[in-house]
Amino acid sequence: MNNLYLIGLPGSGKTTIGRRLAAHYGRAFRDLDADIVTQAGRTVPEIFAAEGEAGFRQREADALRAVAARSGPPLVLATGGGTPCFHDNLDVLHRTGFTLWLDVPLPELVRRLVRGSGTRPLLAATAAQESPEAALFEQLARTLAARERFYSQARLRHSGAATVAAITAALAEAGFSPTST
After folding, report:
1. Is residue 119 a part of any domain in this protein?
2. Residues annotated as binding site for Mg(2+)?
3. What chemistry does it catalyse, as a reaction equation (predicted)?
4. What are the beta bridge partners of residue 100?
5. Is residue 18 assigned to a domain?
6. Is 17 a domain residue?
7. Tens digits of per-residue pLDDT, 110-168?
8. Band of the pLDDT at 100, cuts 50, 70, 90?
9. Are 14 and 7 in contact, with CB atoms under 8 Å apart?
């Protein structure tokens, strides 16, 4: 199966770009966090509050494996920011599809996230800081430092313009075939 998996930090555009790429390639789009929320009947912050990060990460691994094992045409999947970093999920991603790291500069991520950081469990504490932008930047820098060794194993790292044309050209150059099953 040649699914297209988008990985990267929160706010990198995995869902937004994923939807656009799915439309471009004529594929279904799924968001792993949305799958988890539907299956759990609770929001991501509620899952974190009730089960902690470990409980959420187990749900995430189970949901990823369900997507990867399904039959049907390839799809585009927006993963959660930490998905490739736990429970050997990166191996699952590599075995069942093509991984694309949306690498967005930290200042741009801060700009995108500063208003909505309270809705993301691992960033929520930054919203209450005296300088939320600085706290968010520091949190994202720590998160990237911890996750970069996983993200860097993606088949393609895209840090250029986040347009469908630019990304599809980069995907084609990296050997991604949208018609492979």
Report:
1. no
2. 15
3. shikimate + ATP = 3-phosphoshikimate + ADP + H(+)
4. 6, 156
5. yes
6. yes
7. 888 876 555 566 566 666 677 878 888 998 999 999 999 999 999 999 998 889 999 99
8. very high
9. yes
Closest C-alpha among 161, 169, 128, 123 to residue 144: 123
Residue list for the binding site:
11-16, 33, 57, 81, 120, 147
Please give the radius of gyration of the chain, using alpha carbons only, rounded to the nearest integer: 16
Residue 72 to residue 61: CA distance in whole angstroms: 20
Count of domains observed in the chain: 1
What single DSSP character describes residue 101? Answer: E
The larger pLDDT score, comparing residue 97 to residue 178, is at: 97
Which CATH number fits the domain that encloses residue 13? 3.40.50.300
**Binding site as annotated, residues for ATP:** 11-16, 120
Strand order, beta sheet including 3-7: 28-31, 75-78, 3-7, 97-102, 156-158
Token code pair at residue 149: 């060794």
12: three-class secondary structure by DSSP = coil
Binding residues for substrate, as ranges, are: 33, 57, 81, 147
Each residue of 19-53: pLDDT tens digit? Answer: 999 999 999 999 999 999 999 999 999 999 999 99
Residues of the domain holding 94: 3-104+155-173
In a domain, 122, yes or no: no
